[in-house]
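Fold sample X.
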Amino acid sequence: MSAEHIKELIRKNDNLGKLLGVELTEVSEGRAYAELKVAKEHLNAAGVAHGGSIFALADIALAAASNSYGNVALLTNGNIQVFHATQLGDTLIAKAKEVSASRRLAHYRVKVTNTAGEQIAVYNATVYKTSTPLPEHE
């Protein structure tokens, strides 16, 4: 399954990603990059990017990376550490990378940075790799 197909599948079918404005910029086997420009809708009551927005960005990059082999992979465990607040107008970049994999489980690390290269968060996740192929057509 091609990287472009994975990008298009997630772009069309990930409704939260569409709502938030997440853009997948790169996908290859076991890796993916996604971006989010922090808008008013992403802010919490303190006026900084909501942790849920940061988590969702990282999780969408994880979805692209973990499904890049052509079969459905589903999150079983994920945790995030946020190091810095982000402001309205910042662009966040999530870079997902497979750390290890077995027949049924794979572990990923997703680093979230801003355009200045500052590390905003790190998301560690485990996915269950199913034998169900991703749909060929949306």
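Fold sample Y, listed below.
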Amino acid sequence: MSDDTAFPPCPSCSSPYTYESGTLLVCPECAHEWTAGPAAAVPASESTSIRDAVGNVLADGDTVTVIKDLKIKGTSSVVKVGTKVKNIRLVGGDHDIDCKIDGIGPMKLKSEFVKKA
């Protein structure tokens, strides 16, 4: 391999030690794989952004409002429509919002049931 071929740093961890494997670029430090070319220029944060029920992009620390009564599994409690949830934290998975609701406690919510306040 010659030094003429320079691969871009990893978009996930910024490691300069990327290499080519077939049609993909691979990072040996975090095992992130991506395609070379224009698609690699899109920041990972934009391609995997979490959006609320109306399409607004959510971020850590945002305040959201619940748009539907949500039954809390295993209890008779309900999170009512219009409940404001402050200082959310975005996580991966099916329930992609981690938060603490006053009077109820820590919960995980789905972004499809909230609207950015």
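Sample Y note: The mean pLDDT is 85.
Also: The chain has two domains: 7-39, 63-116.
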